Amino acid sequence: MKKIILIISILSVFAVACGNKATGPAAGSKPLTTNVPSDDKTVKDGTPLASWNGNQSIKVNASVAGNEAAAAQDGYNLLERLYSTTWYQSEEEYDDGRLETEETFIFFDPSSEMVQREYVDGIPDDKDDFSALEFIGDITIPNAQDSQNRNACIVRNIEQDGKGVDTEYEGYYLYDETTLYIVDGDTEQEVRDILTAIIANPAQYDAEYRFILSTEPLN
Fold first, then answer.
1. What is the chain's percent helix, strand, coil content, to nearest 5?
2. E-assigned strand segments in 22-163
3. Separation CA 171–CA 188 (nearest Å)
């Protein structure tokens, strides 16, 4: 019963992020994030989308930031700061001579759960995928400012469906508040190697791994 309630809760949150369109976005819309993540490890709370100016988040006041920093001596890891964010990736390819647009939306909830939804030409493709995420560790970011040296990590992704439990590994690299690189693989080392290469040269991996924060409706 607890598992059923948890899944319903996640789906409800994702439906809100999708503009209350649980079966897919309406014409001219797409699932939007409700939060812009903090790229500062000492500040867990991000910025509500409604308060974001489209360029840089309105930072919390110094006393709040100070309290958060005191609460987390080494800062908050990236997974903790990705809560209530929705990320978007789109690609076009030909299928039997017809151009198709494939879109992937990924939502992180406040309990380290993730929902992935895919669309083909605006129509949901199969069912939503639900996963529990377990933080494994940080990935080193060379020459990063101290406040931003926890913006990459590896997690264990545990996906549950009617056929059982499927476990793989994922890596996340928050390049800035609106750009997240997402890597998945069968082993921790595989993900670590790819993520380290992305950190060294992000532009080279944009097409395959870059996700953009979903902040604006589709035209």
1. 25, 35, 35
2. 35-36, 47-48, 85-95, 98-108, 113-120, 123-124, 129-138, 152-161
3. 9
List CB contacts of 8: < 8 A, sequence separation 6 or more.
none
pTM: 0.80
- Structural contact between residues 184 and 166, judged by C-beta atoms closer than 8 angstroms: no
- The number of C-alpha atoms within 13 Å of 203 and in the hemisphere containing its C-beta is 0
- Amino acid symbol at 85: T
State how far Cα 75 lies from the chain centre: 19
- Which residue pairs, CB below 8 angstroms and at least 24 apart, start in 146-153? 147/40, 147/41, 147/42, 147/75, 148/39, 148/40, 148/41, 149/41, 150/41, 150/74, 150/75, 150/76, 150/77, 150/78, 151/39, 151/41, 151/78, 151/175, 152/78, 152/195, 152/199, 153/77, 153/78, 153/79
Per the listing, tokens 């639900």 go with 130
Q: Model confidence over 81-106: pLDDT tens digits?
A: 999 999 999 887 777 777 778 889 99
